[in-house]
């Protein structure tokens, strides 16, 4: 058994690389070893993850005037820029529905001067970001401002979940993405580089069974948020380092 380090970055031209899922193909035909274990040892990933991504940028509401869809342009928002954009849309102007902010409780407030209505959970993807309960319609009244249930959450993603083709780590995940090779905390502000070093070997070591031992020709990693959505790296450069443990063919014993 021996090990070697494989360091890959998106600038290199000798690997076939896609953005996300990060899929790396390289020629390993000259190596007679059989891969037994692959470990994500480290990564440098740019924090270019918007707090209002494409997966969570739509809100639908209904009044007596009809049903309206507001789609926020993907980007980084403050509570003020979120309110400003919503109130400037044709949907807000046509319906009279506007948003404001209650600084006492740090929650969004909806006002509808003509009639009441509801925010539609089925047609919306941004409920949790706005401070509404996912899967539950929110009813607002006419004239009297109605405060949202929860605080708006514009904090963005907190962790990057690196799903890999070579992992077999059990994980309690209702989404179903269980082949995690690394949990990478987003501990740097937007526009900075997240430097991850694997210090949790028991969690991140993935043992490949004998039936999968082979000359390694492809590594694939998908970077996801907590909901399983693929993260957009915005074509920015990244680096990932793997530690590969291998054995020569004659070291393997048939069972």
The number of distinct β-strands equals 17
Rg result: 24 Å
Task: Provide the succession of SSEs.
Answer: EEEEEEHHEEEHEEEEEHEEE
Q: pLDDT below 50 for ≥5 consecutive residues: which ranges?
A: 203-214, 250-255
Strand-residue proportion: 35-45%
Oligomer: single chain
Count of all domains: 2
- What is the CATH architecture annotation of the largest domain? Sandwich
**How large is the count of helical segments?**
4
The CATH top-level class label of the largest domain: Mainly Beta
Q: Tell me, rounded to a whole number, the average pLDDT.
A: 81
Distance between the termini: 18 Å
**Class of secondary structure makeup:** mainly beta
For the biggest sheet, the summary is: 5 strands, antiparallel
CATH fold assignment of the largest domain: Jelly Rolls
Instruction: Report the helical percentage.
Output: under 10%
- Broad shape: elongated
Tell me what you see in this structure.
- The chain folds into two domains: about 1-50 and about 160-250, Jelly Rolls (Sandwich); about 55-145, no CATH class.
- It has helices at about 80-90, 90-95, 125-130, 200-205, and strands at about 1-10, 15, 20-25, 35-45, 60-65, 65-70, 100, 105-110, 115-120, 140, 145, 160-165, 180-185, 195, 205, 220-225, 240-250.
- It is about 10% helix and about 40% strand.
- The protein is built from four helices and 17 strands.
- The radius of gyration is 24 Å and the shape is elongated.
Task: Walk me through the topology.
Blueprint: E1 2-9, E2 16-17, E3 22-25, E4 33-46, E5 58-63, E6 66-71, H1 79-88, H2 90-95, E7 98-102, E8 107-111, E9 117-120, H3 127-130, E10 138-140, E11 146-147, E12 159-164, E13 180-185, E14 193-197, H4 201-204, E15 205-207, E16 218-224, E17 239-248
Antiparallel strand pairs: 1-17, 2-3, 3-16, 4-14, 4-15, 4-17, 5-6, 5-9, 7-8, 8-11, 9-10, 12-13, 12-16
């Amino acid at each position: 058994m021996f090990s070697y380090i494989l360091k890959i970055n998106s600038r290199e031209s000798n690997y076939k690389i896609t953005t996300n899922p990060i899929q790396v193909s390289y020629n390993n035909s000259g190596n007679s070893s059989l891969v037994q274990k692959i470990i994500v040892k480290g990564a440098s990933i740019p924090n270019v993850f918007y707090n209002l991504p494409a997966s969570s940028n739509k809100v639908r509401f209904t009044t007596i005037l009809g049903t309206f869809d507001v789609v926020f342009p993907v980007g980084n928002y403050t509570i003020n820029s979120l309110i400003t954009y919503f109130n400037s849309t044709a949907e807000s102007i046509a319906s009279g529905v506007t948003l404001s902010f209650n600084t006492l409780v740090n929650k969004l407030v909806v006002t509808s001067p003509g009639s009441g209505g509801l925010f539609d959970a089925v047609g919306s993807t941004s409920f949790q970001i706005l401070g509404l309960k996912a899967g539950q319609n929110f009813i607002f009244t006419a004239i009297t401002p109605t405060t949202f249930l929860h605080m708006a959450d514009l904090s963005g993603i907190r962790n990057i979940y690196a799903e890999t083709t070579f992992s077999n780590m059990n994980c309690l995940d209702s989404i179903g993405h269980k082949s995690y090779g690394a949990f990478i905390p987003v501990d740097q502000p937007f526009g900075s580089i997240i430097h991850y070093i694997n210090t949790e070997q028991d969690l991140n070591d993935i043992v490949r069974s004998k039936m999968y031992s082979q000359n390694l020709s492809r590594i694939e990693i998908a970077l996801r948020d907590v909901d399983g959505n693929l993260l957009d790296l915005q074509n920015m450069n990244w680096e990932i380092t793997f530690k590969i443990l291998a054995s020569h063919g004659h070291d393997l014993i048939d069972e």
